[in-house]
Write a structure and sequence with these properties.
Blueprint: E1 3-9, E2 12-19, E3 25-31, H1 39-50, E4 54-58, H2 69-77, H3 81-96, E5 101-111, H4 113-124, E6 129-135, E7 154-160, H5 168-180, E8 185-190, H6 208-226
Parallel strand pairs: 3-4, 3-5, 5-6, 6-7, 7-8
Antiparallel strand pairs: 1-2, 2-4
Length: 227
């Protein structure tokens, strides 16, 4: 089990959930869904720790969370994206500064809005982020437009074929865009799934087999790129 910690964020202080692997391992930034830093995201960090990584999930909503979609949408759209970017880059630096974080770079994984922010963070810290894994990632803010030309990370994405937020055509267009820029990217689309299919606290959308396959691919990517 992990714990809540404080870490520096551009002259200030941010909070997040940290789960550290026994004996150390590569660092991974885990970015929340629009619900906030909820138990599911903390559990994902714990799963990374069990797999030999040290995972840090910044609390982008500063203690706020919700289970209501309408409220989640409002909180997401009200997010101060400049502060969120500082907290995300601060999380990368916090992992880099830990003695128990080892390897060739930092990984980033995110879900829903966090998936979009995972790609954004990879463009903000290309010096450190060597692998980015968005799960059905959306970027709803006009102010957040990743400069994919700056991307250095390998991108492995997981998307749903029934996602109303991000249709398959847009996923394919993103993969083409990244490859046309000379980036290494593979965006998987899982049949019979909807937005949120990895979230095992939501039985309405959770799909066990695709979720496991996506997780296995994520761990394989981070093992290959970070160790």
């Amino acid at each position: 089990m992990g714990e809540m910690i404080e870490f520096p964020s551009n002259g200030g202080t941010a909070h997040g959930y940290l789960a550290a692997a026994d004996g150390g391992g590569p660092g991974v930034v885990v970015i929340q869904e629009w619900w906030g830093l909820v138990p599911h995201i903390k559990d994902v960090c714990d799963r990374f720790a069990a797999a030999g990584f040290t995972a840090l999930a910044p609390d982008l909503y500063e203690g706020e969370s919700t289970t209501e979609p309408d409220e989640a949408g409002k909180v997401m759209m009200a997010l101060n994206t400049e502060r969120a970017a500082r907290d995300l880059t601060g999380a990368v630096s916090a992992l880099e500064a830990r003695d128990d974080v080892q390897g060739r770079g930092i990984g980033v994984v995110g879900f829903c809005m966090g998936g979009g922010l995972a790609l954004y963070l990879a463009t903000l810290r290309p010096d450190a982020v060597k692998a980015a894994v968005p799960y059905y990632g959306v970027i709803p803010w006009e102010s957040v437009q990743p400069d994919y030309s700056a991307l250095e990370a390998v991108v492995i994405g997981h998307y749903a074929d029934g996602d109303a937020f991000l249709p398959v055509e847009q996923v394919q267009a993103l993969e083409t865009q990244l490859k046309d820029l000379g980036k290494t990217a593979q965006l998987h689309v899982y049949e019979g799934t909807d937005h949120g299919f990895f979230n095992d606290t939501r039985p309405d959308v959770y799909r066990a087999a695709p979720a496991q396959q996506a997780w296995d691919r994520t761990i394989a990517c981070f093992n290959e790129q970070l160790r």
